[in-house]
Each structure stands twice: as structure tokens, then as C-alpha cells.
């Protein structure tokens, strides 16, 4: 290393320490100015005031947010009860045929709107038309047999009248013969011959026998008349049976057309043209435009809920639209109690579970036809309970 001589060392030691000393003592003008700025009360107050203003602004903002939250809660949350366990309900009418046959015409498509009385499908009617013609022929034949029975009654009544007349004539002849016999027998034997008396006796016996025969014929005619009356009753019953078969044949022919019972839409169509169907077989379903909401609220949410309270309903499929309704009824019991396997809380370990109670909500105005609403769709009802 290069050595430093004494003179150079002395020279260095004797160098003025002004700058260094000033730096150490803070006597540098620039440093003095900095120190003065730090010790200036005006300069120190500026950040403190800024911090106080910030704190006040944050506190005011928090108060405003709290007040707004409280107002929102007490105005828009506390007076309402809402649940997302809610669905649209409606009637579903299954359609089936009442007579068997082959589908000749299918007049509707899936999801087609239909009116009450519209024909949905037609079964081949030829067999039922033949049955109807046969029933009409049977009715005509039964009517003819009834007319014949009535004519037979009239004939039997005429025979009975004739038999009564014969009885009257025989009775008169019997009386005359009996009177003649009495006269012959009252006369002395010398005045009347034996042959005349014998003749009178035989005529009296014949007249009596004829009277008995006439009375028997009258009884037979009366029995025949009664039998004819019974035949009329039988023929009349046959006519009634034929009329009933005719009505059934007409009904069966009308059943070959499956008619829509309500306005609605066709759903779940499973039948096709040409298929052979049986009575009671499910063909399709009609969903009428009669909707309501079934909301399953927790039992703790029913404290202030009453029938008639207004409801606002939002459908998940149309979140931008709100529908008005009201509480129609509240089920008397939790939904689990009416399930297929109701809970048996008296057996095993018990864990309390908040139960759900179905609430029926009616819509005040039915949605328009352009909305595809139907049973099973999810909704969110909000009931105003306060």
C-alpha cells in the first residue's frame, strides 16, 4: 500500500471541518430549513385535519349505510315472508277412450292449444255403425212383436166375450129345459106320455151340460186373455231392452270421438294414428289454464301469515315479471305428515327438524297465453304478513 507521509497527514487533519461539522450539527442551510419545516405547527396541523375529516366522512357514510340498511330491512324484509320452495300447480286431465278400436284420425299435436268440445282423435267407427244398425233393427222387431201381442190380447178378449155370450145362452136354454121338465112332471101321468117326460129330462140334462161346457170355455178364454196381457208386458220389456241397446250403440258411436273437456294445451301425447287402443288407456293429457302456487313455508314463517294477505310472485322463467296474488288457504298439517311414509317420532333417536307447511296462493290475474307456464315450474312468492 502507498504510505502517507506525515506532512500529508497533517494537512488532512488540518483541513477545515466546516462542512462535516455543519452536517453533524444540522447547521447546513438546507438541513436547517428542513428542520424548521418539521417543527412548524402549521405544517403539522395539515395532515391531522385531513385525518379527522376522513374519519368524519367514513363515520357519516357508515351511519348513512346503516340507516339505509335498517330502513330497507324494516320496509322491504321484515314485513314479508318468502321461500324458494314453491311451484306452480294446476289441473292435469288425462284423456282416454271409452271404447276399443283403431285410431283413424289424430287431430292434435304436442303442446297444441285446444278449446272445449274440440275433437282430439277419431276411432274407426264402422264396427259401431254396424252395431247401431243392428240395434235399430232389433228395436223395430221388438216393436212388431209388441203390436202382435196387443192384437192377440184383443182377439183373446173377443173370444172371452163370445164365451160369456155362450154361457148366457146355455144358461137360458138350461132354465127353459128345467122349466119344461117341471111342467111335465107336475102333470098327471095319464095326460103326458112317458116318452115326452123322458125327452124333457134328456133336454134338461143336455142343457145343463152345455151350460157347464160354456162356462169352461169362458174360463179358458179368460185365461187366454190374461196370457195375452202377459205377452204384451213381455213384448213391451223387449222393446225397452231394444231401446236401451240402441242408446248404448249410439253412445258407443259417439265415443269414437275423443272430445276435449276443457280449454287448455295438449301434453304427454303418446298415441299415434293407426294404433289400437283400449278403454281407459292413457292417450294424452289436457292442462287447463287454471294455475295457482303451492308454497312450502317453514312452520316458523307462519306466525303472522293469514288467509287473504297479498302476495307477489316471481317466476324463475320470467324474472322480470311480477304477478299479484293472495293467500287462499293454509294446509292443516305439515307436508311430511301426509307423505307416503309419515315420520314416526316416537321411535329411535329424535332430531328436531323444521317442518314445511303447504300454502295455496291464487293468482289475481291469469298470465297471458304467450307465457309458457305450467305445473311444476319454480316460483318465489313473497307474502306481506305485516
Describe it.
With 386 residues, this protein is of the alpha+beta class. It is 48% helix and 22% strand. It folds into four domains: 1-37, no CATH class; 80-90 and 287-384, Elongation Factor Tu (Ef-tu), domain 3; 93-123 and 257-284, Beta Barrel (OB fold (Dihydrolipoamide Acetyltransferase, E2P)), CATH 2.40.50.100; 126-254, Orthogonal Bundle (Helix Hairpins), CATH 1.10.287. It has helices at 6-13, 18-25, 29-38, 41-77, 126-186, 194-254, and strands at residues 80-82, 86-90, 93-96, 101-106, 113-114, 119-123, 257-259, 264-267, 276-277, 282-288, 291-298, 310-315, 318-330, 356-363, 378-384. The strands form three sheets. It has a six-stranded antiparallel barrel with strand order 2-11-14-13-12-15. β12 (310-315) and β13 (318-330) form a beta hairpin. The two termini are 98 Å apart. Residues 1-38 have low confidence and may be disordered.
Amino acid at each position: 500500500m502507498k504510505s502517507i507521509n506525515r506532512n500529508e497527514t497533517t494537512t488532512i487533519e488540518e483541513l477545515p471541518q466546516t462542512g462535516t461539522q455543519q452536517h453533524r450539527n444540522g447547521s447546513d442551510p438546507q438541513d436547517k430549513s428542513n428542520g424548521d419545516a418539521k417543527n412548524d405547527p402549521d405544517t403539522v396541523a395539515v395532515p391531522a385535519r385531513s385525518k379527522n375529516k376522513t374519519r368524519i366522512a367514513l363515520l357519516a357514510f357508515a351511519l348513512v349505510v346503516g340507516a339505509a340498511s335498517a330502513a330497507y330491512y324494516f320496509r322491504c324484509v321484515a314485513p314479508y315472508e318468502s321461500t324458494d320452495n314453491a311451484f306452480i300447480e294446476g289441473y292435469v286431465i288425462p284423456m282416454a277412450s271409452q271404447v276399443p278400436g283403431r285410431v283413424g284420425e289424430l287431430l292434435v299435436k304436442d303442446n297444441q292449444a285446444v278449446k272445449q268440445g274440440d275433437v282430439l282423435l277419431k276411432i274407426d267407427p264402422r264396427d259401431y255403425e254396424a252395431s247401431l244398425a243392428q240395434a235399430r233393427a232389433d228395436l223395430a222387431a221388438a216393436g212388431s212383436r209388441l203390436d202382435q201381442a196387443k192384437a192377440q190380447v184383443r182377439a183373446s178378449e173377443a173370444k172371452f166375450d163370445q164365451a160369456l155370450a155362450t154361457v148366457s145362452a146355455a144358461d137360458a136354454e138350461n132354465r127353459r129345459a128345467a122349466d119344461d121338465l117341471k111342467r111335465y112332471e107336475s102333470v098327471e101321468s095319464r095326460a103326458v106320455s112317458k116318452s115326452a117326460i123322458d125327452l124333457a129330462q134328456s133336454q134338461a140334462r143336455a142343457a145343463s151340460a152345455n151350460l157347464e161346457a160354456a162356462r169352461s170355455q169362458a174360463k179358458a178364454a179368460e185365461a187366454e186373455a190374461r196370457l195375452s196381457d202377459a205377452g204384451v208386458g213381455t213384448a213391451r220389456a223387449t222393446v225397452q231392452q231394444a231401446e236401451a241397446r240402441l242408446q248404448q250403440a249410439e253412445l258407443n258411436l259417439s265415443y269414437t270421438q275423443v272430445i276435449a273437456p276443457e280449454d287448455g294445451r295438449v301434453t304427454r301425447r303418446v298415441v299415434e294414428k293407426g294404433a289400437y287402443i283400449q278403454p281407459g288407456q292413457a292417450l294424452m293429457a289436457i292442462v287447463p289454464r287454471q294455475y295457482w302456487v303451492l308454497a312450502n313455508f317453514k312452520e316458523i314463517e307462519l306466525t303472522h301469515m293469514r288467509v287473504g294477505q297479498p302476495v307477489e310472485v316471481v317466476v324463475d322463467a320470467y324474472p322480470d315479471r311480477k304477478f299479484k296474488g293472495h293467500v287462499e288457504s293454509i294446509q292443516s298439517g305439515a307436508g311430511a305428515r301426509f307423505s307416503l311414509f309419515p315420520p314416526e317420532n316416537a321411535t329411535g333417536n329424535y332430531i328436531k327438524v323444521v317442518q314445511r307447511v303447504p300454502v295455496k296462493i291464487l293468482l289475481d290475474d291469469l298470465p297471458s297465453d304467450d307465457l309458457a307456464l305450467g305445473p311444476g315450474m319454480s316460483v318465489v312468492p313473497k307474502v306481506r304478513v305485516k
